[in-house]
Amino acid sequence: MGDDLRERLEGLSTDELITIVRERDLEQWRPEVFALAEAILSRRHVNVMAVRAAGPTRKPTLDFQALDVVATFGGPLEANLCRMALEQAGIRALLTTENLAGVHPPLGLAIGVGVLVQPEDAAAAREFLEAVSHGRIRLPEEPDA
User: Fold this and answer.
1) What is the 3-state secondary structure (H, E, C) of 20-70?
2) 106 vs 11, 83, 103, 116, CA distance in Å?
3) Suppose 122 and one of 16, 21, 68, 134 were both cysteines; which one would form an S-S bond, judging by CB atoms 3.0 to 4.6 Å apart?
4) Is 64-133 CATH 3.30.70?
């Protein structure tokens, strides 16, 4: 089993091995994998100490309590178009009450479908949406099929 594991690790790219060492994911890998990956990286002239010191990559998280509503629409279609436009501008956006509005459209009209962004993106999102609504920015059109 040891030789098979070594061969499998040897077949991985340097970047993949660096990820294994940095993440140290015991749910995905057996403990002996990390020492083998480090040995292979050393033979590939990678500074293993620096890789270990870098530690795991931080996964982006959302604090749903802190999200800001930058726009509200009567239905999910308009809200999704707004979300997609924001994402094309590089601003991550989410929708609230989208499913509720889809299931019961009158309720969707009453409470609306909110477009949410991180607080640090709220000002840029509002500025972008205002520029779009006043025609200062044109959204890309769909290519002809």
Assistant:
1) HHHHCCCCCCCHHHHHHHHHHHHHCCCCHHHHHHHCCCCCCCCCHHHCEEE
2) 57, 21, 9, 21
3) 68
4) yes
Rounded Cα distance between 145 and 130, Å, is 30
Please report, for the chain, how many H helices and E strands are present, in that order: 8, 3
Q: Output the pTM of the full model.
A: 0.51
SS3 breakdown of the chain: % helix, strand, coil, rounded to 5?
Answer: 55, 10, 30
Tens-place pLDDT, residues 10-69: 999 999 999 999 999 888 899 999 999 999 999 999 999 998 888 887 665 666 668 999
Opening angle at CA 87, ends 56 and 69, nearest 5: 95
List the chain domain ranges.
2-54, 64-133
Please name the residues in contact with 138: beta carbons below 8 A apart, sequence gap of 6 or more: 132
